[in-house]
Design brief:
Elements (H helix, E strand, L loop, with lengths): L4 H12 L22 H29 L3 H6 L3 H42 L1 E3 L3 H24 L5 H31 L14 H8 L12 E3 L16 E10 L5 H7 L7 E6 L2 E9 L2 H11 L5 E6 L2 E3 L1 H11 L1
Antiparallel strand pairs: 1-2, 3-5, 3-6, 4-5, 6-7
């Protein structure tokens, strides 16, 4: 198996750096960004950084355990000591996953806050496809990282495990970086700057991703007031967009918000309430694609939560919602 040079470099760094070093710093996840986060979010990021550095120390322990083995033990991979080292690698991987998930969730929630702000203002922000592009790109990278970590948990060879750990680590960092870039664009709205980011997406790439040649042109009005009575006399009514949410609770009687926060969902994303079919239903987030909603489902840690889809206030099955999106493309 031929490993990419950049991933090999990561493994080498992890093998040579001092145990006393704190290789993960909060500033590394804000590089080239000028974003504002609440104090509670900063503390959560510090918790994530602490967890990552703990993961690094556990991985170093695993590496030293392997280094202390004879070559035939490494090749055979069945001795008790070798298996203990593998267990340490898996433990380190889970801690890496936990630390990066904390930071990624903070960034994801701050992206969602922009959408919630627009709702409260009853405005629709246009010209933000670049931010949405980075959100989706980050979501895909994080999903790939999770897959890599799930795979390495089934491996038995230390070198393959280290390779997959390095791969997952790089993907998680990219995912957080891209979510951070989306936050930057949202917080700078309605002004968009030339940030000079490394590997910044081009207008052509954004245009191709959204399959809409109009998005490369600056909008005539960055804040578009939602029409109260749209004129539909000359045009056919457009289909309402399909949206995805994560439903966290439902009851035939209204549930107090304090109870929800204390017993069901303790995260920072606002909880919305709808009354449907004689049920009060409670959900978090609102997305124009299933993947982002499904990612939030995994992160929210609500045992019986699930993704729901709507179009124009009408509930759709996930299958019908995805079909509708494909038809609209």
């Amino acid at each position: 198996m031929q490993f990419p040079v950049n991933l090999i470099a990561i493994v080498l760094i992890f093998n040579t750096i001092s145990l006393k070093s704190q290789i993960f710093q909060a500033a590394d996840y804000r590089k080239d960004l000028s974003i504002k986060l609440e104090v509670i979010d900063e503390k959560r990021i510090e918790k994530g950084i602490k967890t990552l550095n703990e993961a690094f120390l556990v991985e170093r322990q695993a590496i030293k355990m392997v280094e202390g083995l004879q070559e035939n033990e490494k090749l055979d991979a069945t001795s008790r000591e070798y298996k203990k080292a593998i267990e340490k690698f898996i433990q380190a991987s889970e801690k890496y996953r936990e630390g990066h998930l904390i930071i990624y969730t903070v960034f994801q929630e701050n992206c969602l806050k922009f959408g919630e702000l627009m709702k409260k203002m009853q405005h629709t922000a246009t010209g933000l496809n670049k931010a949405k592009f980075y959100e989706r790109k980050g979501s895909r990278a994080f999903d790939k990282a999770l897959s890599s970590r799930d795979l390495l948990a089934m491996l038995e060879k230390h070198d393959l495990i280290q390779y997959k750990m390095a791969e997952a680590l790089e993907l998680e960092k990219l995912a957080i970086r891209d979510r951070g870039r989306a936050i930057q664009i949202y917080q700078d709205f309605p002004v968009e700057y030339d940030y000079g980011w490394v590997d910044d997406v081009t207008p052509q790439e954004v245009e191709a991703a959204f399959k809409d040649p109009a998005i490369s042109r600056p909008p005539a009005d960055l804040f578009v007031q939602k029409p109260i009575k749209p004129d539909t006399s000359a045009i056919l009514p457009a289909k309402a967009p399909v949206t995805f949410k994560v439903q966290i609770a439902a009851h035939t009687v209204r549930i107090d918000n304090k109870y929800i926060r204390e017993n069901i969902y303790s995260g920072n994303i606002p909880v919305s309430e709808t009354f449907e079919d004689n049920w009060y239903k409670y959900s978090i987030g609102e997305f124009d694609n299933f993947n982002d909603a499904n990612h939030l489902l995994k992160q929210c840690r609500v045992a019986k939560a699930f993704v729901v889809a709507y179009q124009g206030g009408k509930r759709l099955s996930i299958k019908d919602a995805l079909s509708q999106i494909r038809e609209n493309q």
